[in-house]
Each structure stands twice: as C-alpha cells, then as structure tokens.
Specification:
By secondary structure, the chain is mostly helical. It has helices at about 5-15, 20-30, 35-50, 55-65, 85-105, 115-120, 125, 140-155, 155-165, 170-190, 190-200, 210-225, 230-240, 250-260, and strands spanning about 70-75, 80. Strands 1-2 form a two-stranded antiparallel sheet.
C-alpha cells in the first residue's frame, strides 16, 4: 500500500480532508480489502489508546494486536501471526513508542501549561451572545455564522470543518474554523487538531480588527499549550497578553499564569 494512501487515511480520521477527497477515501475503504484493513487498524489504535494510564495502555495495545491477527494451527500448538502488512504494524509500534514517551513526560511533571490553559477555554461562553446586528431581520451571512456556532456548541466538528473548508473564509469564519479544530482537539485529545488550528489562525495576528487579533492570540495560546515543542511560544504569548490590561483575555491569562506558578 502506498504511503500516500496511508497519509490520506490518517487525514480522513482527523477530519481534515476536503469533502470530495473524503468521499473518494470512503469508496476506497468500501471496495479495497487491504485499505479497509489498514483503516480499521488505525481507527482501533486511536480508539484503544485513548486512556493515558500506562498499564491500561499496554493492555489496550495488546487488544489491538489480537484483533488484527489470525490464529494458525500447527502440529503441536496454535500461534498468532499478523495478517496485515509489516509496514502497517510498524506504524502501530511507532505510535506505541510516541504515546509511551508522552506518558513518560507527563509522569515527570514536565507541564506545558496544557491543563491550566484549557481550564479557561470555553467556546460556549465566548459565543454566548448570539447574533449581532438586526436580530429581527438577520442577514444570510449572520444566519450562516449562527449555524456554524450552534454546530460547534453541539460538537458537530466534522460538519463545521467540511462546511468552512469548502468556502473562501473571512476573518470571523477563520476564527470559527480554528475554534472547531481546537474544540475537536480537546474532545479527542489529538495534537494534530491543535496544530491545524494554529496554521489556520496565525495570519489573523495581522488583522486591523483588535477583537479578531486578541481572540486569535487566545486561540494560539490554547494551541501552543498542547504542544511540548511550543512551550517557549506559549510562555511568550501568555506574558504578552498579561502585559496588556485592556486585552479581552487579560483576566483569563492572569488566572492561567497564577495556576502555573502554584
């Protein structure tokens, strides 16, 4: 199986494919047995490794191996052999190593501010005001925006991502797409979603709209907090927000800083 197909399967699971490519991959999964097996393996790995307890992790990884293997009887015994390509199994092993490394970092208390920052991230609170403008006769754009906000609140992240990825986005829509990936990342615990959010909203730091710029900084702070490689950027941005008492997220940033200093 080509590396390109494997990458597309991972993107399919992450919800980052375009609608057309998503349909194409779904058709491949239905009609190609080898692709179907690799997709199921990757899906099971993500499902089984959701628990971050190390002993539970080991047992769950064993469950994945057992599910994707077949019994072969010999003259004196029955043994297990994997029926999937060796490259696919090596991917599973690599994931195991990465997750184990992540658990080791956690066990040594090398915090990146993840828990502190996410404790103060609340999309529902941020977008609790509803429609702006003429509520009695909202524009089509405002209705579409409200629909997106409602879908994020109801955790329909994939629908929001597909909808917004298929159109040319203005600043507010880019922010909402960033929120969708952040919320999806929090829900699923996947670093990739946080990184995607960072890529989507980074350019908005140049916005002339102060509210857009400051909301972008908050989103980036949340995105950085999940990635151990972004610890320096996280601390720099946190201090920058705290230095501006007029920043709309000043209060939340101060609370994050206080939590980190405990």
């Amino acid at each position: 199986m080509s590396k390109d197909i494997h990458d597309k399967l991972q993107e399919y699971l992450d919800g980052s494919l375009s609608p057309d490519m998503r349909s194409e991959i779904e058709n491949e999964i239905k009609t190609n047995l080898e692709i179907q097996k690799e997709y199921q393996l990757l899906k099971d790995i993500e499902t089984e490794l959701g628990n971050q307890d190390l002993e539970v992790f080991k047992k769950k990884l064993s469950n994945v191996a057992k599910k994707h293997s077949e019994s072969v009887g010999t003259k004196n015994q029955s043994r297990k052999i994997f029926s999937l390509p060796r490259r696919v199994l090596s991917i599973a092993a690599s994931i195991a190593i990465l997750v184990a490394g992540f658990l080791w970092v956690q066990s040594n208390n090398q915090s990146t501010g993840y828990d502190s920052a996410l404790a103060y991230y609340d999309f529902n609170e941020l977008y609790s005001e509803g429609l702006k403008g003429d509520v009695g006769n909202p524009s089509e754009k405002e209705m579409e925006r409200k629909e997106v906000i409602d879908k994020i609140k109801s955790k329909e992240y994939n629908e929001v991502i597909e909808l917004l990825n298929s159109t040319s986005l203005d600043e507010n829509e880019s922010l909402l797409l960033g929120h969708a990936y952040i919320s999806k990342g929090i829900s699923e615990g996947k670093l990739g979603h946080f990184k995607t959010a960072i890529l989507i909203v980074s350019s908005l730091l140049q916005s002339e709209n102060i509210k857009v710029k400051e909301e972008t900084e908050w989103l980036l702070l949340i995105g950085y907090s999940k990635d151990v490689e972004k610890e320096a950027e996280f601390n720099q941005l946190l201090n920058s927000i705290i230095s501006n008492r007029d920043h709309i997220f000043y209060g939340k940033a101060v609370k994050v800083k206080e939590q980190l200093n405990r």
